[in-house]
Design a protein that fits this description.
Helix content of chain B: 25-40%
Number of strands of chain B: 9
Helix content of chain A: 25-40%
Strand order of the largest sheet of chain A: 1-2-3
Distance between the termini of chain B: 63 Å
Largest sheet of chain B: 5 strands, parallel
Order of helices and strands of chain B: HHHEHHEHEEEEHEHEHEHHHHHHHHHH
Number of helices of chain B: 19
Distance between the termini of chain A: 55 Å
Structural class of chain A: alpha+beta
Largest sheet of chain A: 3 strands, antiparallel
Oligomer: heterodimer
Strand content of chain B: 5-15%
Radius of gyration of chain A: 24 Å
Shape of chain B: globular
Shape of chain A: globular
Number of strands of chain A: 17
Chain lengths: 587, 458
């Protein structure tokens, strides 16, 4: 049994280390370790709850806006606020834009080098690549000249003598199976995706004021307003329309967003989805690898009404293989976390399972530096283990699509069935590394088709004269319940996101986040059961331990983001012996 | 082939001569240079080989990386392929583990003394560095090793600039800035996240002039962090005329009025957000109806929060004041004048104001912006600055503080309930560092009475 270590695991959010015991060319056991801790929830203590979303948003810049939304929703539930329709729709638009972007970029930027041999692509025949592209899609950028240009440009960078992101990749590894033309096609589309996502995210700049980290959320709504349409009174100054930068809720602003969403749908249907299908057809054996825990959880995504527990476009629920058709509820009360194998101390003992609202852990690093191996280490991660009724659950696009499919959600059912038919794949094959990638593409299609209609609803609603963007009845601290406790359960692209907040005397007393990657990349729990990613790695082939390409395939299929996953509600008198920088001086 | 110049590379990927010249003109503008510099920039950029870059991520959220991916022309794809030689970037690179470390060591050897180090995220020094480990090693060690042979080091974003959100309120990980870890002359491009155009412009400045742009004492390039946001803000005229958003979504909001009263930190924040904007000039937070949160400023998470609390003092009435003028001491005389006129009154008013705020807090606030001071101090209004007077036109009079350039320095708010008076530091005009507010005391329950500038916050 040989211990294999990948650190840093690149192309993930945050910092991730994977260790695996390999025997007979197969992973027997694996350990997933988040190696970065910031303590943002701790930083939130004592803050104004109306500010919380700005802090929480900084949990992740890739999942931009995801934690801001989760945070305002948690505070709004605590305070009893219902957001106006306009605000809900703008939030959906921000979230759906980010989700589409994250899925597409997650594939091309994070996953492509696991499946596409960049060096082999340099030998591709541009004319053959062009024919291939035209056989797959009507996407116009498909001429031989175009592919020749991309190939030469890549060659200049990869073989030009300097460094590049492609240097030292596992090129030539026997697990690469695409033709050079397929390689070149996908790489070219990856470069196009980089340009496309920048344009798409202008929606966030319009509606969020900046990107990443949109800055227009408010507890109670959004700060965006429609342009003034009424008369200008004497003694005041009329607004000056800025034709270069129309405001988001003006006709011009919404037209920009509409065009970008149409572009997004085109790109997803003509580039992203066909590419994923092409890749999936070439790697059918990966539909039998990386199954993991085969229990799936979704909190649901995209509110269709303004209530605390709204009807959601993608429904909440739980399913488990093999009976994927049976849906159970997803209850907030069943969610727990344990630090049994994470670098925290729990006053009630290491195996304690706590509800997030009662989270009470303290950072307590117990390794020796530098870390060479986790062999013999009882604690090995800054990620705590999230569990549902004590068991590990996989979350993310695959979980959402399976739950939506089981509930008969029309858009998802249609798209998923079409994809499965195309690939000759069974629903059972979805519970795999390849299934995660396919489900992501399917979900992106579903979302890209839906996104425009939220914009339409927004237009229609504004046209009725409903200009409300924020409910301010609970803006003033005097109006807050005492104490106030709330949570939000929702979904980011990479999985279920829950925020819990307790407000006393007008300030945050407790704050806790359980992110998608807290579920997927979690370490073992008190019973020794591995997290979903650890479980999924068992059985993964490793043909060359010095080039653990196959392990990366399964890891990246989860799109882990440990920046999101790692958190702790600690205490300032924490046990790590860290002294708070110049806190004394500030006093 | 890779080293035959950025210009050739850009042409190869289909950038036209025209858009190249537009790019160089835009860069000249971003760098606050006359347009006549565009040809010089073009010449420099045309001949430049790809610049080796090592991008390190510590206690980060990948926000700066994401900002980088949103770079306008030359786009991220172009930067990665044609402009920069991205030797190491964990979010973007194909190799992992040992192979990734090989990329790093190769770059350190091959480009010794000639590579640019970009650091994103704070650098935790607590618990022996265990709060951020890369390859099993404390991130701080990696940073020191890599910065050692660098051409220059750039801190991107608020976290690398001053510890950012992991260091807010002191944090628990001893999150340090790049400057604290490597010392010396780092370049800082703060912001949460930074505006990527400032990063590109900084690099273009180096390619053009073979030196890094002029910086302030915290390493922030003046072209980007010299302007006061309030001075360049499109809503500024409404400030002058006393037209304020009073509550979110109100008529004033729809008319694009000034966000000062709902907490905008633009009057105390230096940055070029208002003019450069984000997303190729698409928008910026104030355009989208939300106040500036001061994210380019030191310790902004503490110094600028609560974010919906209006700033304690109106801006000094010098519309064209910029930080470089302050630095150059050009307004020293004016500052002195203001101090003479205002300081006596200022001290009194700060005290009264702090007491008033506490009173508001005790009543737990009311109205849309619950943190407004009460209106009882009308007698204290000093009529000298006309603009400030107009500021308050929309409301019954409030205390108006007359402050000189020294007001750019924020005084720490008293944290002790027993000590209502606030220390007033009459600092020289050159000091532009806001002193952060004192963080809350420890959290024993029940909490002590409200104090200082954060009424609802205990």
């Amino acid at each position: 049994m040989a211990r294999l270590t990948i650190d840093p695991v690149t192309r993930v959010g945050g910092h991730l280390r994977i260790e695996a015991d390999v025997a007979g060319g197969v992973v027997r056991e694996a350990w997933s370790s988040g190696t970065m801790f910031r303590g943002i929830e701790l930083v939130l203590r004592g803050r104004d709850p109306r500010d919380a979303w700005m802090f929480a948003e900084r949990i992740c810049g890739t999942c931009t806006g995801v934690h801001a939304l989760a945070s305002v929703r948690a505070v709004e539930r605590a305070l009893g606020v219902t957001v106006p329709t306009n605000a809900r729709l703008v939030r959906n638009l921000l979230a759906v834009t980010q989700a589409i972007r994250d899925h597409v970029v997650g594939f091309y930027l994070s996953q492509l080098p696991d499946w596409v041999d960049a060096r082999a692509a340099l030998t591709a025949d541009p004319a053959a690549t062009s024919s291939l592209a035209r056989s797959l899609s009507t996407w116009p950028q498909a001429s031989p000249e175009y592919f020749r240009g991309v190939r030469d440009r890549l060659a200049a960078t990869i073989e030009g003598g300097g460094g590049s992101p492609w240097a030292n990749g596992y090129w030539g590894h026997p697990a690469y199976r695409l033709s050079p033309e397929q390689d070149l096609l996908l790489l070219a589309h990856g470069l196009e995706a980089l340009d496309w996502q920048r344009r798409l995210m202008r929606i966030h700049v319009l509606m969020g004021g900046r990107d990443p980290h949109p800055q227009t959320y408010l507890v109670g709504g959004m700060s965006l307003v429609p342009d003034w349409g009424g008369p200008i009174g004497p003694g005041t100054h009329p607004p000056v329309p800025d034709r270069n930068a129309p405001s988001a809720l003006s006709d011009a602003g919404m037209s920009i967003a509409e065009d970008l969403l149409v572009d997004a749908r085109t790109f997803v249907d003509q580039v992203f989805a066909p590419d994923v299908m092409e890749l999936a057809r070439a790697y059918p054996d990966w539909a039998t690898l990386g199954a993991g825990v085969r229990r799936y959880l979704s909190y649901g995504m995209f509110a269709e009404d303004g209530s605390d527990d709204p009807v959601q476009f993608l429904p909440a629920g739980r399913v488990a293989a093999p009976e994927l058709a049976v849906v159970d509820t997803a209850d907030e009360a069943a969610i727990g976390e344990t630090a049994a194998h994470a670098w925290y101390e729990d006053p009630s003992g290491p195996d304690t399972m706590r509800r997030p609202v009662e989270g009470e852990t303290r950072p307590a690093f117990s390794g020796s530096l530098p870390i060479t191996s986790f062999e013999g280490a009882n604690h090995y991660s800054w990620i705590k283990a999230a569990r549902y009724n004590g068991v590990a659950m996989e979350v993310g696009p695959l979980a959402r699509m399976l739950v939506a499919y089981a509930q008969g959600q029309a858009d998802s059912t249609t798209a998923l069935s079409t994809a499965l038919t195309d690939l000759g794949m069974t629903a059972d094959g979805l519970t795999s590394t390849l299934g995660r990638i396919v489900a992501k593409a399917v979900e992106t299609q579903v979302l890209a088709r839906r996104a425009g209609s939220w914009l339409g609803e927004l237009r229609t609603n504004l046209a009725t004269g409903d200009l409300a963007v924020a409910d301010l009845t609970r803006w003033a601290p005097a109006s807050w319940p005492q104490p106030a406790e709330g949570w939000s359960l929702g979904e980011g692209p990479r999985g279920s996101v829950g925020h819990w907040v307790r407000i006393e005397d007008g300030v945050i007393r407790r704050y806790q986040v359980v992110d998608g990657t807290t579920w997927n990349a979690s370490p073992r729990d008190g019973s020794g059961s591995p997290g979903p990613m650890e479980a999924a790695l068992v059985g993964t082939p490793v043909s060359d331990p010095s080039q653990p390409l196959e392990i990366l395939r399964t890891v990246h299929a989860f799109n882990p983001c440990t920046a999101c996953a790692v958190h702790a509600l600690g205490r300032r008198d924490g046990t790590v012996g860290v002294h708070v920088r110049d806190l004394e001086a500030r006093r | 082939m890779a080293d035959d110049g950025l210009y050739a590379a850009l042409m190869r990927r289909g950038m036209s001569r025209r858009s190249f010249l537009q790019f160089t003109t835009a860069m000249a503008a971003a760098l606050a240079l006359p347009a006549s510099y565009a040809p010089r920039i073009a010449r420099a950029v045309e001949g430049a080989p790809r610049l080796p870059v090592i991008w390190l991520r510590g206690q980060d959220c990948a926000g700066e990386t994401e900002a980088f991916l949103r770079a306008p022309e030359p786009s991220a794809a172009s930067l990665l392929l044609d402009v920069l030689s991205m030797e190491y970037h964990e979010s973007l690179m194909a190799p992992a583990g040992a192979a990734a470390e090989l990329s790093l060591t190769t770059a350190l050897e091959r480009s010794a003394g000639g590579y640019l180090v970009v650091v994103e995220g704070a650098i935790p020094t607590g618990a022996g560095g265990a709060f951020c480990l890369v390859g099993g090693r404390p991130f701080a060690d990696v940073v020191r090793e890599v910065a050692d042979g660098a051409l220059a080091t750039i801190a991107v974003g608020a976290c690398a600039f001053d510890g950012g959100v992991p260091g807010a309120g002191g944090g628990v990980t001893n999150a340090a800035s790049l400057r604290e870890v490597v010392g010396g002359h780092t370049i800082a491009l703060p912001g949460c996240p930074l505006n990527v155009e400032n990063l590109v412009a900084t690099i273009v400045h180096y390619l053009t002039f073979e030196e890094w742009p002029a910086r302030d004492m915290m390493g922030r390039p003046l072209f980007a962090y010299g302007p006061l946001i309030h001075n360049e803000c499109e809503r500024r005229p409404h400030f002058e005329f006393g037209e304020f958003v009073q509550a979110w979504g109100d008529e004033g909001a729809q008319k694009g009025w000034c966000l000062y009263k709902v907490g905008c930190k633009g009057p105390e924040t230096f940055g070029n957000c208002a003019s450069v904007r984000f997303g190729e000039g698409t928008s910026w937070p104030v355009r989208a109806g939300h106040g500036c949160i001061g994210c380019t400023m030191p310790d902004f998470w503490d110094a600028m929060s609560p974010f919906y609390l209006r700033l304690p003092s109106p801006v000094p009435p010098f519309p064209n004041l910029t930080v470089d003028m302050v630095g150059a001491g050009l307004v020293a005389g004016v500052g002195g004048l203001a101090v003479v006129h205002g300081m006596g009154m200022y001290v009194t008013q700060r005290r009264r104001r702090a007491a008033a705020r506490r009173e508001v807090a005790a009543r737990a606030g009311e109205g849309a912006v619950a943190v407004e001071p009460p209106v009882a101090v009308a007698a204290e209004v000093v009529a000298a600055p006309v603009a400030a007077d107009l500021t308050e036109a929309a409301e019954p009079a409030e205390a108006v503080e007359v402050t000189g350039p020294a007001a750019i320095t924020r005084e720490p708010e008293a944290a002790e309930p027993a000590e209502p008076a606030e220390a007033v530091e009459v600092t020289g005009p050159a000091v532009i560092t806001p002193v952060p507010e004192a963080p809350e005391p420890e959290a024993p329950e029940p909490p002590p009475a409200p104090a200082g500038d954060r009424p609802e916050v205990r």
